[in-house]
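Let's inspect a concrete specimen:
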Amino acid sequence: MVTMKEIANKAGVSVSTVSLVLNGRDEGRVKSKIADNVRAIATKLGYQSNPLASSLRTGRTHILGFISEEVATTPYAGGMILGAQTAASQFGYMLITVSTDGENSESEEIAALKRYGTDGFLYAKMSNRITHVPSSLAKTPLVLVDATDSLGKIPSVEPDEFQIGYDATTRLVKAGCARIAYVGCLEPLIAQDDRLEGYQAALRDAGLDYDDHLVVNVLNNGPALTAVSDLFDAEHPDGFFCFNDARAWYVYECAARRGLTVGKDISVVGVDNHRVFAETLEPMLTTVELPHFEMGYWAVAKLVSIIEGRSMDDVSWPATTSPAADRRADSGEDPLHADRKGLGEVTESHTISQGLRSARRPFACRTDTTRRFTSID
């Protein structure tokens, strides 16, 4: 194992100088030419720092804890965790991910991570909601992911749900729909309330009247199919904005039972880009993909900035990982309206947009501590 003393002998400097350089404390203390030479020699010799020694010296372990409430088992967790892991690696941290299934399990996992000397925590929820943060995390660096604390004081990142509802509904308006229904959810979620508001605003801006008879909120169960079926028969919508892709399935099923074709007789837009629904429904579903990778990346960047006292302005943002918005399906048909001119290229729109406003300027925020990802650039 290469030591600092060996590097010092090769570079012709003191061990303390090598220590300053390799621990990033050389600015203003060591001439840049000497520092560059020390780094070059360390790289050539294959020097690797000792994390334990570093943690004893700095009081930091460079370990981050990612605590999730069943997030790790959802179809969308991969992108969020990958984004967090990518950022952690780039900032020189190790990310430990744990999934909990209740208050007791959560307390045990938090206690275990603290025993490792974790520098800070990410606390993620399965869907965007207001949450009460465990008291055991009150005095440690913390960022919420896909959640907002009840007092609005903790830094958090969440999708811009209003913009999602607005963009999805506007897409239906541009497809020529005049009676646009909203198939929402019954759970008390921020996403439900804000997407509904976005839907209403898009209708208003398009000069269409909001009709609460065109709104039905359902759970993902058998009665949902009946509720959507009743909506078809009573209101005859020609467009459907669905809270998520799972609810879009009910629309497809009801349309098929009535001999209606999605993309010709009705138009449908979902949310999530859930592969099971988005790519297996026929025609393939137009859906809004949430920026899970970017959310995970930003959360870690923010957490590190809190731990190290650095500015977020210095963060280099990755390009979005969302797939291309427009890809042609084998059938060549548009799942919105194949018979509408100008829409033929949008045959498999997995993302109406990429979900990321900009990597170079602040995103729209609901509070000073909350970063919200919007669905248009």
Q: What stands out?
A: The CA atoms of residues 150 and 273 lie 29 Å apart. The first strand starts at residue 63 and ends at 69.
